[in-house]
Design brief:
With 186 residues, the chain is of the alpha/beta class. It is built from 6 helices and 7 strands. It folds into 2 domains: 96 residues, Rossmann fold (3-Layer(aba) Sandwich), CATH 3.40.50.720; 38 residues, no CATH class.
Length: 186
């Protein structure tokens, strides 16, 4: 049975993250972490040229259990399932979040297909059942989000401090912002 996942957005700014693997998939995962300003270390015996050019710490060697210590999250993206399983096992022991590329059974979290129009981020997940379907839905959702939505989000963000000061309850703030959104997108 597929687990039900708790969707969350993580603040990775300055967080120590580990990527095990040095190929194309690892590079893709590193890009996602860097987009969120994570501090990334890559451990792999071989590292693709593109990955070498990224602002990450690279350790060209096999994975070691001690690599997980002190990490906020870990991504295993090797082409060797036994290495990925070991990374997952160590992360579980250390109670560290772990994603294993294309192997949801080994993950403590999975990554949705995302649409990013800062500050808006929409994630689409099929619970690991089909990344291809999630990517297709993501593409369709992307067509619904335009620059006007991102601009509105930035304007509303600017109003939050005023609303917290002036509107006494959560419900009053919620109603105020819902009205502004309705008017702006009518």
């Amino acid at each position: 049975m597929t687990p039900r996942y708790y969707m969350a957005c993580l603040d990775l700014r300055g967080r120590d993250c580990l990527v095990v693997g040095g190929g194309r998939v690892a590079t893709e995962k590193v890009h996602g972490l860097l987009d969120c300003e994570a501090k990334v270390t890559v451990v792999a015996p071989q590292v693709d040229d593109e990955l070498r050019r990224l602002p990450v710490r690279i350790e060209r060697r096999p994975f070691s259990r001690s690599d997980v210590v002190g990490r906020f999250l870990v991504v295993a993206a090797t082409n060797n399932r036994s290495v990925n399983a070991e990374v997952s096992s160590v992360a579980r022991e250390k109670e560290t979040l772990c994603n294993v590329a294309d192997d949801p059974e080994l993950c403590s979290f999975i990554l949705p297909a995302i649409v990013r129009h800062d500050p808006i981020v929409v994630g689409v997940s099929t619970g690991g059942a089909s990344p291809a379907l999630a990517q297709r839905i993501r593409s369709e959702v992307a067509e619904l989000i335009g620059p006007e939505h991102a601009e509105l989000a930035r304007r509303l963000e600017g109003l939050r401090p005023w609303a917290k000061r002036e509107l006494p309850t959560y419900e009053a703030r919620r109603d105020y912002f819902q009205q502004l959104v309705t008017e702006a997108l009518a």
